[in-house]
Amino acid sequence: MPRAKSRRFTESAQALAAPESPVLLVTIEHALLAEPLRFVNDTEDLVSNGHNYRACSFGWTWPDDQDKQTPRASISIANTDRSISPFFERTHGARGAVLTLTQVMRSAPDFVEDQVTLDLTNIVATAQAVTGQLGFDEILNKASTPYTYRPETAPGLF
After folding, report:
1. DSSP codes of every residue in the chain
2. Cα-only R_g, the chain
3. pTM score of the predicted model
């Protein structure tokens, strides 16, 4: 279901020289984190809905549309102050991490213009950046039960 956008957001999206651009907020949640990691893709910190987002540079690639595979996006977060890579190294790639991308206007940071939540997988932490793939867990490609009954494994049933 589409989310209602503010007037300022739609005007800046349609303007050739907008006075204000939307900013992206990233929230990384994991069971081993007491407090989620929060970043804003800007040069100044931002407070949105009572949470402080630390200024950090990151790149975001939209999901692809390839045949016979689930859509995948990617993200690369700058590791300039070396504060985020220890978490990913300590948790062996942060299996089970969930990333939420939120788009807000700096003038109205409490109004969420758009938001998407994706699973964070295939994380690689280097001295320069932490990169990972974003997508959904491939539920349809998993076994529906932990046991499979076949004539070789359960001959009494057949």
Report:
1. -PPPPPHHHHHHHH-SS-S--EEEEEEEE-TT-SS-EEEESSSS-EEETTEEEEE--EEEE-----TTS---EEEEEE-TTS-SHHHHHHTTTTTT-EEEEEEEETTBTTS-SEEEEEEEEEEEE-SSEEEEEEE---GGGS-SSS----TTT-GGG-
2. 20
3. 0.75
- Contacts (Cβ under 8 Å, ≥6 apart) of 130: 76, 77, 79, 84, 85, 88, 123, 124
| Euclidean distance between CA atoms 99 and 120, whole angstroms | 6
* Confidence band, pLDDT 50/70/90 cuts, at residue 137: low
Task: Please measure the distance between the N-terminal and C-terminal CA atoms of the chain and give it in whole angstroms.
Answer: 46
Query: Which among 101, 102, 108 is positioned nearest to 9, based on CA atoms?
Result: 108
pLDDT tens across 30-54, in order?
888 888 989 998 889 999 999 999 9
- Residue written as token pair 């990913």: 88
* The token pair that represents 31 in the structure block: 């069971």
